[in-house]
Amino acid sequence: MATNEEIQKDLEKREYDAGFITDIESDTLPPGLNEDTIRHISAKKDEPQWLLDWRLEAYRHWLTMEEPTWAAVDYTPTDYQSISYYSAPKPADSGPDSLDEVDPKLLETYEKLGIPLREQEFLAGVKNIAVDAVFDSVSVATTFKGKLKDAGVIFCPISEAVHEYPELVKQYLGTVVPQGDNFFAALNSAVFTDGSFVYIPKGVRCPMELSTYFRINALNTGQFERTLIIADEGSHVSYLEGCTAPMRDENQLHAAVVELVILDDAEIKYATVQNWYPGDENGVGGIYNFVTKRAECRGVRSKVSWTQVETGSAITWKYPSCVLIGDDSVGKFFSVAVTTNCQQADTGTKMIHLGKNTKSTIISKGISAGKAQQSYRGLVRMGKNAENARNFTQCDSLLLGDKCGAHTFPYVEVKNATATLEHEATTSKIGEDQLFYCQQRGLSEEDAVNMIVNGFCKDVFDELPMEFAVEANRLMEVSLEGSVG
Amino acid sequence: MLEVKDLHVSVEGKKILKGLSLTINAGEVHAIMGPNGAGKSTLSNVIAGRDGYEITSGTITYKGDDLLEMSPEERAWAGVFLAFQYPVEIPGVNNTYLLKAGVNAKRKHQGLEELDAFDFMKTVKEKAKLVELDPSFLSRSVNEGFSGGEKKRNEIFQMAVLDPALALLDETDSGLDIDALRIVAGGVNKLRSKDKAIVMITHYQRLLDYIEPDFVHVLADGVIQKTGDKSLAVALEEHGYDWVKENK
């Protein structure tokens, strides 16, 4: 039987199977960031003046800000003048009208990643998901737009929404995450390129799962996508997001903003499987994943849940948050984060309780191996009007080997005496006694590790839609592959 | 079936077993008794293949194969089962799921088809009855939130499903009340057969009232001091372990 040290060594050998590069001609802006860069991006997308002004305002604000250093991560700072802020596969002046116009190389790329872009692939009835595929800075295809439109659901690239639904975009953009919210959000507001826009009208239950698949391909390019989802009164939607990137020796920046607006009695379930390239075993390369995600439960009895499975990225800085404004609104955060080799993750959530009887749940599971460092950072704030608000927090960490670390930073602010908070935290090593027990019952060591880790993550995986639960299980197995020598 | 010869084992440099020899044939039930720290659990752990034991000399042969060359799961596939003294909790892992993975890994190794869910559940329900295990335990996480007695009963249930040739019961009777002891012993007795062997490690003679052994060994100071039949256990209960050492 291998010891923890051996398991740890084997973990360092894990393979990243989405690391290929698509050889496609692209239209890429030269590196550098100034007002002209922003004007150029805006012109590329033929944007109205108000949006250009909005971007420039964000950029000028960003110039006054400093990159945050409070997270428990250590990395070489990005030189913002050395990266390109726009890259699109040619020709991409406007989004393609049908799949026939999409470059076969792109279709092949998504096929290789297991993302079906041909609608007929869904007809077997196995999958019921509409996909928006974002490649570097542009959306290259969105499926099932017609079927969704019949239900009144808008699902399209945000660059298209700016033209087709300007009033909706104008009404909600930047209202959850303002331009100057934080360093990375300000940068994103200035240079965001594409992302998804979703609007679910009153009383509509979205007839299928919506998903966006983000792919970074071009060298030295940052990806700055922006997603905006609005669930109008009494509506319901389940949204999934997946991410991968090629293996490159250079670090690449991904700074996204996601805004969710939930009105009376509506519900959004937002799930992420983040598998950006994590860098090699020596910590060379990998994606810097600096993301701002926030949901505002503006309506009474509105609900939101963030479910994330984070296995990729060299550095992760991410705190999907819930602002519970409406009375009786509910926010949930379920997270599994896996860090191996030299990966670092500082992730968690914020639950801001403002309305009466608001409820929140936080379940965070961290798994560290190799030399990886991981922190859970969470804030629970009970405002002075948050009568009878309740929060339950559970943070569990699992360590494989003795060179990795797990840290927990829970922050609590309570301004209403009727609020209730519960917090549970555990840190455990994957037990040699657990491994031996499973092996004694006939499991190989690798199967035993997978079974124990999946068991550890069960509370979170149970929250994922079926399609993603399978994907998450597979990803975990890939991450832990070769754990037996 | 099992042949232990002149076995010397150290743990962190401390000598625990000092030339232990033991022969176990198919169809036999052996009881190993002895004071705390005598090396009883070390012996069962070494047979099952647990890490952390240094075997300095000696051999263990199982059905003609060198057991010490086999990984823990290979030993399990070959029919060695250990009922743990302290069964381990595995949160989030379904009790039945673990067992099914174990059974099918063994079948795969033997070149047999994997059992489908239907056939497997049928076996599982039969065996659960054998140890009077409430069916709700089948869908719970492995040993999580089980009482001491329930954990031990779960061990015997797993043993019934995995159907081993050689079962090692490490203090399975400790922490059981008299009713639970009767149920567990009943389960073990139903599993006795001429092609299986059982080794019970225990402190108490009372277990042997329920599961009658063919041989009783007294293990002290790292070797078998004395071997006898059931009456040896009764004598032990009366005179204590020092009596054995004095009357070798």
Q: How would you summarize what this structure contains?
A:
Chain A has 485 residues and is α/β, with parallel strands linked by helices. Chain A has helices at residues 4-11, 35-44, 49-63, 104-112, 145-150, 158-164, 166-172, 183-191, 432-440, 445-456, 458-461, 466-479; strands at 26-28, 87-89, 129-135, 138-142, 154-157, 196-200, 209-215, 226-231, 236-244, 251-254, 257-262, 267-274, 286-297, 303-310, 315-318, 321-324, 330-339, 344-353, 359-368, 373-382, 390-399, 405-414, 420-429.
Explain what this protein looks like in three dimensions:
The complex is a heterodimer of chains A (485) and B (248). Chain A has 485 residues and is of the alpha/beta class. Chain A has one domain (19-429). Chain A has 12 helices and 23 strands. In chain A, strands 5, 6, 8, 10, 11, 13, 15, 16, 18, 20 and 22 form an 11-stranded mixed beta sheet that branches. A 10-stranded mixed beta sheet of chain A has the order 4-3-7-9-12-14-17-19-21-23. In chain A, strands 1-2 form a two-stranded antiparallel ribbon. The termini of chain A are close together. Mean pLDDT of chain A is 83; it is low at 120-126. With 248 residues, chain B is α/β, with parallel strands linked by helices. Chain B has one domain: 3-Layer(aba) Sandwich (Rossmann fold), CATH 3.40.50.300. Chain B has a 6-stranded mixed beta sheet, with helices on both faces. Chain B has a 4-stranded antiparallel beta sheet with strand order 2-1-4-5, covered by helices on one side. The longest helix of chain B has 15 residues, at 95-109. The model of chain B has no long low-confidence stretch (mean pLDDT 90). At the A-B interface, α9 and α10 of A face α2, β7, α3 and β8 of B.
